[in-house]
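Please check our next protein.
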Amino acid sequence: MLNSEDRITIINYRLEKARQSPKEAKSIANLGYWNLVGNRLYYTVYYASSALILDKGFKAKTHSGIIALIGEKFILPGLLDRKYGQLFSRLFSLRQAGDYDDMFDATESEVMPYVQEVENYLNAVGELLTFGRNQS
């Protein structure tokens, strides 16, 4: 069981990783590595989501568990827009395909539209946080 101070430290660490990942995605985009861009966008949402889940006292041990908790605890009750559940699921699929599928290469037109949506998700999560710092 985490004490309050450790919990806040981990939440803020995850938020910092969530803020750093879109910067990495944009830098990688300049090199044209679209699978990696999709990966970094996915991890932006993943880190922000895991921070939110911890902030609210929930636990998940897997990526799918975090996606499910975001849906159950934040999207279904209307705290987060349904589009963010779709975003998370789509980025998860994109990351899985980019990392594990043979003969899959993401394209710029497939990945880049998610950049702004991911930024919007970070802002939406920031508004729900109790303990984490919402700093951009």
Summary: The mean pLDDT is 93. DSSP finds six helices and no strands in the chain. Residues 13 and 71 are 23 Å apart (CA to CA).
